[in-house]
């Protein structure tokens, strides 16, 4: 898969923030009121705690120094403590509600966007990596909100207040504060600009490591059969080593930023306190003013120091969410819909379910060899068709474009005279029961998988469908029967068991069109015979298309199509096709009377 060249830092920053925000803003808008209240409550709390309280402490020190009663000012300080605490708790309540809502909305957004991606997209991406990216896309919003509310807004208000207050009472100190804040912000922005690219690259390496990690675990049993554990582990160590190098670079830049900010904070405190000490010694200012300004300096220094930390966290929050935002923005591979089938089931009762391919062409990559070229054929309603041919002849492609998992380049595909491109995909697929070659079930109970075919199926209907498909193993093999969890991707089921469950799902769905891709490829001879009987007996009246390399499966069907180079070269019932096609007859002979090689 092609990758974009890394952009220089001055081009990355706007792309990162604008791209992520474009995908976040709807979730934030839905919770705008709660976020606004959070901002108000936290900033009012900071105002009472970090601004008013030091002023009252100044009064206390000055009143004690002058021999006056300081208790009134002290009571105001207690009031500031109480109000600050109450406002903080109100802020906590609002931020818990708003953050949980936003994370939930962003998780929904990520899954919805990924479900719209076509099969080509998933062929080019690690599932584990996508899970990692989507998790960061949602969860990093919490980091951005926390640091944006707790530090950035509070620091901004504190800086504005201190600048105004000091300019009014001590213009020279106010000027020092203004110069220092300006220098601090500029230095922070410059350092952030240079470290942003490092964060993006570190995040990408993290996703790659997670993807490889997931890929190894998913394929571990297969890899073990080739004694590949050591080689795969060594390869993973290289990948994780690359991630470590990029993380170190990003973290070194962060630590350099902290070191520079630490020097700036020290300079501020030394210069301001030196100036104020002389003012107090010259009787220009009181000891209370000195104490108040010391509190302000410490508060400002801590907040500005945290500002750098928070900008770093906000930046990494956006960069960690960036990869999924880019995926969601890319509409070139969004060929799917996330829609319920139409409530109007009239499509199922189209009287004529003839499937017509009219000069259909398709290739997997632009300019590549066409898998199908001007393919023409009418699959008559109610008939059962077998589709055979050598690997790469275009058999599976035929089904993919009929299901609109891939889009054909030219020509028309019609069902009952209606062009499938004019149908919502959910409605089109409601017409079709599909039995894949290797079903990959979600990790659910067997009963839940079966009811994918018919959600409101009764227990009797489910059991009858299982009996027709030869799924006796459900109650013979598993103590929990239909309540057995099949495991990730149906790992608890053998290949043959998974195919039989998929056939039972197709029986329950009762769609007018049946598509089967190698339905007996993983079955023993006895079960294959049972499935052949099920096909002919339980799908009577359905339009059926069956891909098979095992010709015994299609020999019982009404008609067999032999495909070569994306074209139908022969079509006839099995017995007739044996006489018409030399290549078909040869395939049949090899399967029914195999040649045993002698040493």
From TrEMBL:
SMART domains: AAA. The chain crosses the membrane at residues 32-48, 74-97, 149-169, 175-196, 250-274. Keywords: ATP-binding, Cell membrane, Membrane, Nucleotide-binding, Transmembrane, Transmembrane helix, Transport. GO terms for cellular component: plasma membrane. Pfam families: ABC_membrane, ABC_tran. Residues 355-590 form the ABC transporter domain. It comes from the Bacteria. Residues 54-316 form the ABC transmembrane type-1 domain. It is a multi-pass membrane protein. It is found in: Cell membrane. One of its GO terms (molecular function) is ATP binding. This is ABC transporter ATP-binding protein. It comes from Candidatus Nomurabacteria bacterium RIFCSPHIGHO2_02_FULL_38_15.
């Amino acid at each position: 898969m092609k990758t974009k060249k890394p952009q220089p830092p001055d081009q990355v920053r706007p792309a990162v923030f604008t791209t992520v925000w474009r995908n976040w803003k709807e979730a934030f808008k839905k919770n705008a009121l709660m976020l606004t209240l959070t901002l108000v409550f936290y900033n009012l709390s900071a105002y009472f705690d970090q601004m008013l309280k030091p002023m009252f402490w100044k009064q206390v020190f000055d009143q004690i120094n002058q021999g006056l009663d300081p208790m009134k000012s002290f009571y105001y300080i207690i009031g500031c403590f109480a109000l600050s605490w109450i406002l903080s708790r109100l802020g906590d309540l609002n931020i818990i509600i708003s953050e949980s809502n936003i994370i939930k909305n962003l998780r929904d957004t990520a899954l919805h966007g990924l479900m719209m991606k076509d099969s080509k997209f998933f062929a080019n991406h690690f599932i584990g990596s996508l899970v990692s990216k989507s998790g960061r896309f949602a969860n990093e919003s919490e980091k951005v909100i926390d640091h944006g509310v707790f530090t950035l807004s509070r620091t901004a208000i504190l800086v504005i207040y201190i600048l105004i207050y000091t300019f009014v009472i001590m213009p020279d100190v106010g000027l020092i504060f203004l110069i220092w804040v300006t220098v601090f912000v500029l230095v922070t922005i410059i350092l952030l600009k240079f470290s942003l690219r490092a964060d993006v690259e570190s995040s990408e390496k993290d996703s790659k490591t997670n993807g490889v990690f997931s890929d190894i675990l998913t394929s571990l049993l297969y890899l073990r059969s080739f004694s590949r554990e050591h080689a795969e582990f060594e390869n993973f160590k290289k990948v994780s080593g690359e991630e470590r190098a990029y993380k170190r670079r990003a973290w070194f830049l962060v630590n350099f930023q902290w070191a520079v900010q630490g020097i700036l904070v020290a300079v501020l405190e030394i210069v301001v306190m030196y100036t104020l000490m002389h003012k107090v010694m010259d009787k220009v200012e009181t000891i209370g003013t000195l104490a108040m300004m010391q509190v302000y300096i410490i508060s400002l220094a801590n907040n500005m120091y945290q500002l750098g930390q928070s900008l770093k966290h906000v930046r990494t929050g956006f960069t960690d969410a960036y990869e999924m935002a880019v995926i969601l923005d890319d509409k070139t591979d969004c060929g799917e819909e996330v829609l319920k089938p139409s409530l109007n089931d009239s499509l199922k009762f189209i009287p004529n379910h003839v499937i017509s391919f009219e000069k259909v062409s398709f290739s997997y990559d632009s300019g590549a060899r066409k898998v199908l070229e001007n393919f023409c054929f009418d699959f008559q309603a109610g008939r059962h068709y077998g589709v055979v041919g050598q690997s790469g002849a275009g058999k599976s492609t035929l089904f993919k474009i009929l299901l609109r998992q891939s889009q054909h380049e030219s020509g028309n595909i019609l069902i009952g005279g209606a062009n499938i491109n004019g149908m919502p995909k959910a409605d089109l697929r409601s017409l079709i029961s599909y039995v894949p070659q290797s079903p990959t079930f979600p990790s659910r109970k067997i009963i839940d998988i079966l009811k994918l075919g018919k959600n409101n199926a009764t227990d009797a209907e489910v059991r009858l469908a299982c009996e027709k498909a030869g799924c006796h193993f459900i109650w013979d093999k598993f103590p929990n029967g239909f309540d057995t969890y099949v495991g990730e991707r149906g790992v608890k089921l053998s290949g043959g068991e998974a195919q039989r469950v998929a056939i039972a799902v197709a029986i329950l769905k009762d769609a007018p069109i049946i598509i089967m891709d190698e339905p007996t490829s993983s079955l023993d001879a006895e079960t294959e015979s049972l499935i052949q009987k099920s096909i002919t007996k339980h799908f009577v009246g359905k339009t059926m298309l069956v891909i098979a390399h095992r010709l015994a499966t299609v020999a019982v069907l009404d008609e067999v199509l032999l495909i070569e180079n994306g074209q139908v070269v022969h079509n006839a019932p099995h017995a007739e096709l044996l006489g018409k096609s030399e290549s078909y007859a040869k395939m049949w002979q090899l399967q029914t009377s195999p040649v045993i090689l002698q040493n």
